[in-house]
Write a structure and sequence with these properties.
binds ligand PBG; two-stranded antiparallel sheet; alpha/beta; TIM Barrel
């Protein structure tokens, strides 16, 4: 204990908690709408809003609908959407060619959103899994995920996304060297202002299950992703991975999943001091939402508490499916 702090009764901690104005005055962290990035799923077709069984309250929108979602984000004060595709089965193959099709769902959606709401930031995942008939983030040969061959595909995917107007690219597949390859490609093709938010500390987690349903990848994936995502026991490795991504040209970094990995967020922020984000992933959403639907918790209070927890751990912002709900709650406060 600091020698400045005198024991009770000279020091009474509760004096600083007596009223809401004093609590506000001494609060160490705050959350705001500008901390939020809203992940949104996109599907084929017109005038569609499909529900996702394992993510109640989250939908897949067709492109005409996603432009409405973008307007809603602007109205709510949300700065950025992260777009993910539900790729039709006939467009998936082992080479993942749909990943660099300028007319794939996320690229088309990016162009449509930029046309109507140019000031809304767009973040696109650079990873092959939504396009891979093998379900993995990398190209698969026999039972091996190929690293260097995957990089060639990622480079094509990233350049196409940048050319369609994506503001931020999010390499999310944990292949070695991906950030460097993407940064060099962007630089050489004149996309010097395209941001990279690398999923630098992405763990081989079981919290991604509902997301894989949402993008239609679950049925294709055999085995797990442990040969490329980080072992959930490893903190030092996650800091090393993040430092590498920064050295390769990432502007911002991300920890994923979120709440179970707050120690990782804090260590990265303290040791590397770079813009740090957390992804409150689909499994976290599903846990909170199912407890809410059962009437077991006060969801709104829990959402604000989780956002503050991320801020306290040093995060600059959070990707969360709850972004619109949280924005409404913060607006009321
Ligand atoms: C794909 C990707 C995943 C998520 C974001 N990008 C899934 C995975 O790695 O299997 C998960 C997001 C979530 O669970 O909400 N590279």
């Amino acid at each position: 204990m600091s020698p400045l702090i005198k024991p009770y009764p000279l020091h009474r901690s509760r004096r600083l908690r007596r009223t809401s104005w004093i609590r506000d005055m001494v609060s160490e962290h705050s959350a705001s709408i500008s901390d939020l990035i809203w992940p949104v799923f996109i599907c084929d077709g017109f005038n569609k809003k499909e529900s996702i069984v394992s993510l109640p309250g989250v939908y897949r929108y067709s492109i005409d609908q996603v432009t409405e979602v973008a307007k809603e984000a602007i109205d709510l004060g949300i700065n950025c959407l992260a777009l993910f595709p539900y790729t039709p089965a006939d467009l998936k193959n082992p080479e993942c060619t749909e990943a660099w099709n300028p007319d794939n769902l996320v690229n088309k959606a990016t162009r449509a959103i930029k046309k109507h709401t140019p000031n809304l930031g767009i973040l696109l995942d650079v990873a092959l899994d939504p396009y891979n008939s093998d379900g993995h983030d990398g190209l698969l040969r026999e039972s091996e995920i190929l690293n260097d061959e995957t990089l060639i595909a990622l480079e094509k995917q990233a350049l196409t996304q940048a050319s369609c107007g994506a503001d931020i690219l999010g390499p999310s597949d944990m292949m070695d060297g991906r950030v460097g390859i993407i940064r060099q490609a962007l630089e050489s093709k004149g996309y010097k202002d395209t941001l990279i938010m690398s999923y630098s500390a992405k763990f081989a987690s079981s919290f991604y299950g509902p997301f894989r349903d949402a993008v239609g990848a679950s049925g294709y994936l055999s085995g797990d992703k442990k040969t490329y995502q980080i072992d959930c026991a490893n903190l030092e490795e996650s800091i090393r991975e993040t430092a590498l991504d920064v050295s390769e040209g990432a502007d911002m970094v991300m920890v994923k999943p979120g709440l179970p990995y707050l120690d990782v967020c804090m260590a990265i922020k303290r040791r590397l001091n770079v813009p740090t984000f957390a992804y409150q992933v689909s499994g976290e959403y599903a846990m909170i939402e199912s407890a809410h639907l059962n009437g077991f918790i006060n969801r709104d209070l829990i959402l604000l508490e989780t956002l503050l927890s991320f801020k306290r751990a040093g995060c600059d912002g959070v990707l969360t499916y709850y972004a619109p709900e949280i924005a409404k709650l913060l607006d009321k406060k």
